[in-house]
Write a structure and sequence with these properties.
Elements (H helix, E strand, L loop, with lengths): L2 H23 L1 H14 L3 H18 L4
């Protein structure tokens, strides 16, 4: 695994651990996550548009020398 891949895996692992700890400390966070997951079933297009916007930002935001 490359150093970049290890770093990405470490950041993702920390993020997941943080979400789990927050859900254990604050039960209302768990309720919010459950509600968001249920609503995502109906609002998948919103996530798609957000991902498309981020992709376009990186695609058109590159400065060519």
């Amino acid at each position: 695994m490359t150093p970049s891949g290890k770093r990405t895996l470490a950041v993702f692992s920390v993020f997941v651990a943080l979400v789990v700890v927050l859900c254990l400390i604050f039960p209302r966070v768990l309720g919010f996550v459950e509600l968001a997951a249920r609503e995502l079933k109906y609002l998948w297009w919103l996530v798609f548009m957000l991902a498309l916007g981020v992709w376009l930002m990186f695609f058109f935001g590159k400065r060519k020398p």
